[in-house]
Structure formats: structure tokens, C-alpha cells
Design brief:
mainly alpha, two-stranded antiparallel sheet, 51% helix, two-stranded antiparallel ribbon
């Protein structure tokens, strides 16, 4: 599975999980195979998913319909488990970041444009406040912290917020850590979160590395939060990538050595 870089337009905060991306960001590339509708049977699952969507799993299974169904089911299970893990990461990140910035800049840091110098961040704050007001909720600081999305909290570690790194670095209890490392890991996890939220296939993503990033980032902020993730995880995560490249055809296929991870 290859990767490429391409420019993306700046995105505004609506949508809950999107953020602006810096030039040169590398996106995980999900291979979209050609539909294999000719070999799809008449079955309820295919009718519900659509032949085009199911063909992704059928390509990975090399035409094995039963295996394709198991891959689809595992994609759902994996998405659910990862989403729960990222929930804890996001809660830890926003509370730790808020605590650090409140200590450094006071309780009004969300409305201080010298702190949030990026227009994207300012837009997120304005729209979070508008959402609370529309829902007839008081836009208190704690309500604002809870309303702001993962894209906003991730953006605090981007290049445009380099001036905040001295305040935010202490929330991670580990050595030799650079801002760019945190920014990249959060950017990759945000994209994974977006794929999960849109019910897209994630098996071709580097799941072992992404799962480890969730555990590491959370543990650096809170050992207890990381332990919660481990305790409540319902899956045995693979140590290697689930989807590999067929050496003969170059097509993405499921690594049959990992079949034990799939539901029956």
C-alpha cells in the first residue's frame, strides 16, 4: 500500500472532526479496488452494503465471499474498539491541555487571540459557543472545553501553535519528545477517527502502529487512562498489518496468517 502527498484546502471547524492540514501532510492511502460485481451473490448483506462497498472486502478476500463477510464484521468490531480508545485519549488530551493553558494564560485563554492565533482555532471557539447558545446551554469554560472537537485540540500542537509548546510539553510525562511528533500522531489518529465515524473500511490502515500511538499518547498523560483503554478493549490487536500487497499482482489482500483475529 503506497502513500502520497497532495495539498488539501483549509477546512473550517464544522463537522466535528476536521481540521486544517499543513502543506506536506502525508495521508494514509486507502486503495479503492474496481467493483467485482460479477461474482457477488444475491445475499442480504450485499444488498444492504451495496456491491461497490462490499467489493472492497471481496477484493481483500480474493473472491472468498465468506471471508469477505468476516472481514466486514471485523472492520466493524475494530472500529468500535478503536473509537472507545480514542474517546479516552481525547478526554485526557483536552483536560490536560486546558489545565496547562489555563495555568499559563488564565481561564480566558479560549478567547485570547494571542494564545489561539490560528484562524481555524478561533472559528472552532466561535462555533462551539454558538452551538451551546443555540442549545440554550451556558457557554461556560467547562462547557466550551467539552464542546470543542478533536481537530481543535490536535491543532494546538501544529506549527501555527508552536508558541504554545512550552506550556503544553509538560503534560506528556516522557523524555525526548518533540512537538512535531505529537502533531503527526494526532493528525494520523484524527484521520482514522474520521474514517471510523463515516463507517469506512479501516483494515488497510496501519492499525498496529495507530493502536500503539493511542496507548502511548494516553499513557504519557495518564497511566490510569491508558489502563482503562487496555482493560476495556475487547479485541486482540494484530502485531502486523492486516492488508498486505500481493507479490504477484500488486493488489491489496488480506494476510491469511491473521485469520485467527477474525470473527467466525
Amino acid at each position: 500500500m503506497g502513500s502520497s502527498t497532495r495539498p488539501y484546502p483549509r477546512k473550517t471547524c464544522p463537522g466535528g472532526m476536521q481540521s486544517s492540514d499543513q502543506p506536506g501532510d502525508t495521508w494514509f492511502i486507502w486503495h479503492r479496488p474496481q467493483p467485482i460485481t460479477s461474482i457477488l451473490p444475491d445475499m442480504p448483506l450485499v444488498d444492504i452494503l451495496s456491491p461497490d462497498r462490499f467489493s472492497t472486502y471481496l477484493t481483500w478476500s480474493q473472491g472468498d465471499v465468506a471471508l469477505a463477510e468476516r472481514l466486514y464484521s471485523y472492520n466493524v468490531q475494530l472500529s468500535s474498539d478503536l473509537y472507545a480508545s480514542m474517546h479516552m485519549l481525547e478526554v485526557a488530551l483536552r483536560n490536560k491541555a486546558d489545565g496547562a493553558l489555563t495555568l499559563a494564560h488564565g481561564n480566558g485563554w479560549l478567547h485570547d487571540n494571542t494564545v489561539l492565533a490560528d484562524p481555524y482555532q478561533q472559528t472552532c471557539v466561535s462555533q462551539a459557543q454558538a452551538t451551546l447558545q443555540r442549545e440554550r446551554k451556558a457557554a461556560t469554560h467547562s462547557q466550551m472545553v467539552a464542546e470543542l472537537n478533536f481537530g481543535f485540540w490536535s491543532s494546538l500542537f501544529g506549527r501555527t501553535s508552536n508558541h504554545l509548546w512550552a506550556n503544553l510539553r509538560p503534560i506528556f510525562q516522557t523524555t525526548g519528545l518533540q512537538r512535531a511528533t505529537i502533531a503527526e500522531k494526532l493528525r494520523n489518529l484524527r484521520r482514522l477517527r474520521n474514517r471510523i465515524a463515516h463507517y469506512e473500511p479501516i483494515l488497510a490502515q496501519p492499525i498496529p502502529a495507530l493502536h500503539q500511538d493511542i496507548l502511548n499518547l494516553t499513557a504519557w498523560m495518564s497511566v490510569d487512562a491508558s489502563a482503562w483503554i487496555t482493560t476495556h478493549s475487547n479485541l486482540n490487536y494484530p502485531a502486523t498489518s492486516l492488508i498486505v500487497t500481493d507479490p504477484q499482482t500488486g493488489a491489496p489482500i488480506f494476510d491469511q496468517a491473521l485469520v485467527g483475529h477474525l470473527p467466525n
